[in-house]
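Supplementary material to the annual report.
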Amino acid sequence: MMVSVAVLASGRGTNLEALLDAQEDGDLDPARIEGVFSDNEDARALAIAHERGVEAQFVDPDGLDRAAYAEALLEALDANDPDVVVLAGFMRILTPSFIQAYPDRILNIHPSLLPQFRGLDAQRRALEAGVRIAGATTHIVREDVDAGPIVLQAAVPVHPEDDVERLSDRILAAEHRILPASVRLFAEGRLSVGQDTVSIKGDLKITDTTLIVPEVTS
Ligand code: GRF
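Predicted assembly:
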């Protein structure tokens, strides 16, 4: 049975691209991206969707407050009737009624190892905090921003010579791996979402490697 996915994206859409690439390679099955929605008419994400033959819709936020915009989005999504909504760089905060319309069916990707560095500029704040290990997280969306049960995480090292761009690129490459994998797990019905945590059914390959940064040699 096909699981229909709607993607909400505000910007350049590399995570959307990663999802579409995975779909093309058969790595998203049984999920299918059936609609892309944006609050930004010029979002590259919309152009990518057009190019790849996916229905793309700009939902105009002009003159709407947060609640009215969430209603407009809900209406647009309704026609699409998605099984899961993926926030892939969607820069607007959703309302409780939006979230309740898709209970435990909204996934978000965030460029940090949550619960650290919720909110904007996570990569810059990670650098400023001097962490040695950064990363990306997919999670189920709850009412608090960038909170909610974690699905997958990927860790990357922080290099001494990193600036925000270099670190962001390394984290982005990790995002592109865990977002499609999370959508697939969802579509396969393998996520069981509890109040605070997610458990994943079936065989899991856990690599028992310790990431120590920098690796200390004597
Ligand atoms: C990603 O870093 C995502 O984690 C964040 O916004 C960025 C979106 O990038 N929330 P893209 O539009 O998918 O290229």
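The first strand starts at residue 3 and ends at 8.
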